[in-house]
Write a structure and sequence with these properties.
- This protein is α/β, with parallel strands linked by helices and 274 residues long.
Length: 274
Amino acid sequence: MKTNWNGKRVLILGAARQGLALARWLALHGAHVTLSDMRSADELRTVREALADVQVDWALGGHPLALLDTTDVLCLSGGIPLTLPIVAEAVSRGIPLSNDSEIFMEVVPCKTIGITGSAGKTTTTTLVGRMAKNAYGDKAYIGGNIGDPLINYVDNMKADDVAILELSSFQLEQMTISPNVAAILNITPNHLDRHGTMETYTAAKARILEFQSKNDIAVLGHDDKGAWNLRNKVNGKLFTFSLHELDEGLDVSYYHDGLLNLRDGNAYLPLILR
């Protein structure tokens, strides 16, 4: 974990939304940032102008391995594959990998909720974000794989805020920090062109649980085998959800007779009519 980026030489692959936000934040915190993208200077004229107020070096038209000679940390934007030659070479040299979500999690001062899944994670993150906005107002931040990268706002966050992140398998496979509340909605075949096998894809999703403590909370979909089969990886308290009433002993939100209900230990709470 790195919280002091002053003087660090950071290479970012990909000048899209996440890479640009991370480049700005790192440059403002004293890092020597190089942004590398396959596109040309003409194609990136607008985004280069957007970063003109911070010190960022550009390496365009490819990802030459020589860039690694002056790199302390390699950061991957969403969708950059681990099989890319420069990434594989960085791993072989022992250069650590990171991304904007990992760096955000290293410095965020408040509680975090992370949501992943093969389907429905954007909808769920949006709904949880709306509920958080109702409860917390401007103290609730929503982002990650949707909207603005939250690294843009982390310097303004306070301890009593809350951050809700949608997290993709691409982001999770480099992360070594878990959110305080980690939800896996479902795991079905997806992005296998990137991950290769279901086992590798599932392992990337499961990393959202891996670094939780006993004081954290995991939420796993009960009706999806891919998610529910990860319950043995839960380190903290387990909640689940289902379209059916489940056996006693599970802390669960479930649908029954037109009503969404919550059971938490011995407490039962009817929540809302369908």
